[in-house]
Write a structure and sequence with these properties.
heterodimer; A: alpha+beta; Thiol Ester Dehydrase, Chain A; two-stranded antiparallel ribbon; globular; B: Thiol Ester Dehydrase, Chain A; two-stranded antiparallel sheet; 8 strands
Chain lengths: 145, 171
């Protein structure tokens, strides 16, 4: 498949996910094996009401979605994917009021598995908020976009 | 003279009030619609199905990130609950006046690893956490989640947590 078409389909698929929409995610970039998604600060996503810091779960979801997008946009990747495992390291609290942006790279793909690394950042991009590594499935394209 | 046992209703109210204060103050937990049920000190988390939790509209399936968040919240609440249980049962904290604002600090997640065993189906999910080790500074917690059958897990996870620093040093 033409890489541009693949990238466009991956983008359309991710943008159609109800939970990605519920969290207000939007693409900053999508290319061959890479994706960058941003999520606006929203008081509904707060995990610690004392500080207003976003819940780790919302950040995990952003990185998981971003990882899936990177797999789907990889030239050797298939049309569909699911997460096999995901490890998240929380380095620091995201600064309240700032968007959180995740950047995922699909660094290796076999016939069955895609390996992904991701980081999540707020405005201070030099000091990531969280990082993740995961393995994703490569689903047969037939019947799925 | 032996002290009369406390009326059961009073005990239940105190414990449920403490659990409510622990869970009710977290906006994100309300956002995904998570609830907790209590049997004695045992907690079971429930994630009632909602259309907005879908991560793959073609299958359809729950979002893997939602599953991660569900398991992580179950682990943190279990840890927080175990700490709070001792405080309220010993009378060091009065459950009557407990609100999300007066609650002790919660543990912080250091890392969390999720193992996706089966597709999350578009229906309710349940989870329970087991604290494998809880020290003064760190804790290790395992969580299991299922949908229709308790023995067929759809996801499991292990996480490490930084315990809150107590205001007063232990005697």
């Amino acid at each position: 498949m033409d890489p541009d078409i693949k990238t466009r389909l991956a983008r359309q698929f991710i943008e159609s996910i109800p939970h990605a929409r519920a969290l207000g995610m939007s693409f900053v970039e999508i290319g061959e094996g890479v994706a960058e998604l941003t999520m606006p600060y929203d008081t509904r996503f707060v995990g610690d009401p004392h500080t207003g810091v976003i819940h780790g779960g919302a950040i995990s979801t952003l990185m998981d979605t971003c990882g899936g997008a990177a797999v789907m946009a990889h030239p050797a990747g298939a049309g569909g994917t699911a997460t096999l495992d995901l490890r998240i390291d929380y380095m620091r609290a995201a600064t309240p009021g700032q968007n959180v942006t995740a950047r995922a790279t699909c660094y290796h793909v076999t016939r069955s598995v895609a390996f992904v690394r991701a980081v999540a950042m707020d405005d201070d991009r030099e000091n990531p908020v969280a990082s993740a590594t995961g393995a994703f499935t490569i689903e047969p394209s037939r019947g799925r976009t | 003279m032996a002290k009369r046992p406390e009326p059961v209703q009073q005990v239940k109210e105190r414990r449920d009030r403490a659990l409510g204060a622990l869970v009710g103050g977290i906006p994100y937990v309300q956002f995904i619609g998570m609830r907790f049920e209590r049997r004695g000190d045992e907690l079971t988390a429930t994630l009632p199905f909602d259309e907005k939790l879908i991560g793959n509209p073609l299958l359809p399936a729950l979002h893997g990130g939602v599953t991660a968040a569900f398991l992580e919240t179950t682990a943190v609440i279990e840890l927080g609950w175990q700490g709070l249980w001792g405080e309220i049962e010993s009378g060091r904290i009065d459950a009557e006046t407990l609100t999300p604002d007066t609650l002790p600090r919660m543990p912080k997640t250091i890392d969390f690893t999720v193992d996706y065993l089966r597709t999350g189906l578009p229906r309710d999910a349940y989870a329970r956490a087991r604290v494998n080790r809880s020290g003064r500074r760190y804790a290790s917690v395992h969580v299991e989640a299922w949908q229709d059958n308790r023995s067929r897990l759809y996801a499991q996870a292990t996480g490490h947590f930084l315990m809150p620093v107590h205001d007063a040093p232990d005697p």
